[in-house]
Amino acid sequence: MKSAKFNLIMPSSVDFPLLASSIFQERVKPGGVYDELSDLFSSMGPEAIANAEFGVDFFRQNFGDDFTSHFSYVDKDSEEFNANLFGEILGAAHGTCVGALGNHFIGGDADSVNDMKEIVKGTQSDHEFNAITLAGGVLYKVPDGDNIDRNRGTEARGAEGYIKKRSIDVVNAEHNGLNRRARHQTPPRVPNDSEISVGALYDPRLMLDYGGQVFNLDKAKLVQPNWCKMDDTLIVPWKNYLHLRQGTLIVANICIRMHILHPKNKKKPKRRVYQAIINYLKVVAISDIPVAYPPQPAVSRVNNALKIASGQSNAASVLRMIGASRSSSGSSVSKKVPKHTSWTGSIADNHPELDRDSDGFIDPEDMDVGGDEFAGDPADDQTKAAKRLKTINGYKIMNPRLIRKIMAHYNYLPNSISTSLFEERRKSGGIYDKLAEAFVGMGPNAIANAELDQDFFRFNFSEAWSSNYSFRGMDSKQYTANIFGEIVGQAHGTYTGAQGNHFIGNDPTKPKLLDDFTKTKCTIVIACPSFPTAAVSDLFYNQICTLSSIRDADKEEEDRAGTAVIPKDMVKALRGGGELDAITLTGPPLYTVIKKDKTSNNDNTFASPAKRNLKKRNFASTSNDHPSDPHNDILPDETASTTLAFPTGSGQQIFAGAEYDHRLMPDFGGPVFAMKKAKLIQPQWTDIRNDLIVPWKNYDLLRPGTLVVATVCFEVFVMSPKSASDSVRKIYHATITSLRVIAESDVIVAPPTPSVSNKKKMSAQPVASSAAASALASIDWCSTATSSSLSGSDHTLDGEDPPKEGIDVTTDGKRKKARKQ
């Protein structure tokens, strides 16, 4: 049974630059939690993982018999090595999984990408190692004495194991959808206080996100781990999302394991999986970052003291004492807060208006702005959670609605925000009805209705020597089809800025440059639209089925040939271990690319691998007075500036294929960009009024939550291995030939600065059309669109339109307003 998983990062005074709350700021004050952590861990010796040395304080040995390929680590006394560590919890986008699925992987080829899974990792592709992954114990367990049928549930995905399309009935779709989602189950029983203890077993349906096709549990029960809140009461698993939200500071006692997995296909490499397994965990500083959660069952709050198993090692015992020194030394902890909750003292003193439980503990739920508020009208500020936020003075941004929407921008997923703009879509005769009717009537011109090897076929349109291939239609021309979806946040793969999908390498101090000779493209990840009708939901699911069938057919061929392939598919799961529910669309080249002259010296600075031989820092040489900055500032040299002019009707005409100055992108600049002659290219992307979207307005007009339709073609790029031990790589692209916004979004975005504006109307120009593109063009989307204007300044953080004057831009991308003459 799968386990929960955390990703920790170095604690900071603020996890999001716009949300520097007093709760985070209190941590860095003298005598605060950071001082206590540093004093305690520096004096722990090898019981703190920061002070332990491999080969001196702990050693590797076989875990089990002598023939096993699993290893653990022991101390000098030949007992299992246990050590303590601390960190701040990261969000789900970085690998934290504390829901009903845990770290369960539902299938596909993505699991074969890496032959090593480490405990440490980088939170961003261009950073060194700066995060630690912790694995919990098993999330579910079959009670002793119960027998289970190992073959049960194999029919869930069909005999072939592939997902199958749904039939679409536009008229009765909503009724059929309700019947399909109906569940006649008795509600799970909530355990009382006396039943909650370490190792206790609960009904798995208590998990708020339990349900769906993935779950097929019969006798397995939910297991209570030894994870505690600040008052030493247990965190029940269905409250993980709340008490272990991102930004929470925790300490944990862990042991270390390493597993060698042998592949069934001997041509594939062995996999090494390293795990830091949690024996005991305690929250030492809460977070007030807003969280969104699924609708809850009617459960009572469990806040009374619960039974906790005693520690099994000296290291764990040390953790249980954290907080006692500050509470007993006469610190400024309020007398209303018990000594064992001294970690909450600074919060209690500064915010007495927050409710406390009968034992004095301030529950993070009192500061939550998620949950039911997401299901209602965000304009209503009279919720309990919103009132709590209004009374906290530490925020730089006071409006709780604004805070919630800013947090939603980067990690945005459909259904996470409900406003009147989203609700209008599903009304009778609205955009969802028009969308379903149009796509059902398109036939194979809509990817949801098309079938591989029936409506489109694999074909090599490139040179005969190339292994790359695409697909042709019944007319033997390149196959194009229409697709729709709602744009998700950047955390899930949407990149529409100046860098596109360019990968700069693992070392930010030596980035792989984006220059005149480097190709980069925008990527837009789409998911099923928010609050869809049953017909729209089924159509999007069928799109996933068609695209998945392309990879399924290739995999069958590879298995017959015994070829090891590492694929990068067009479809993916937005949540770790979830079902396939998103589609990655790839735009055309973002910039013109100059062919490299082999006789000239135009070498790029290529990326270096992440630094492996890391050396520990001398703790005594660091200062507690000045928090360390884990990232070094890279300051480019100042260079001569030139005036940057925006395209105008009198000078540079705006049309599909037009070329602009690459410095027009608002986030252009920094050490990655080394362009001189490359030009920014105008794609055939239009807004809801059918005006062209200039690339420097992508962040605004293609913000998360926007509903788009696109005409795409499919391309597969095959990369041959460089050595016999390497695998073939296949990259699947759904390449956008044209795109149109059919419903706008009012998700607040934080645009790159300085933002730019062009008031001139930019009309789309006619381009070569396919049957699929013509099918889209014939639909009058505007007849169901709302009349509200959602242009840049009304729904972005920059409150005013920028001036129309010129902008001076240095060649390294720095900007300043040009002085008026």
TrEMBL record:
Q: Where in this chain does the entry annotate a coiled-coil region?
A: none
Q: Where is this region: Disordered?
A: 328-357, 602-638, 785-821
Q: Where does this protein have compositionally biased stretches of type Low complexity?
A: 785-794
Which spans does this entry mark as compositional bias, Basic and acidic residues? Answer: 795-813
Question: What name goes with this protein?
Answer: Protein
According to its UniProt entry, this protein's organism is Lentinula edodes
Its ancestry begins with: Eukaryota, Fungi, Dikarya, Basidiomycota, Agaricomycotina
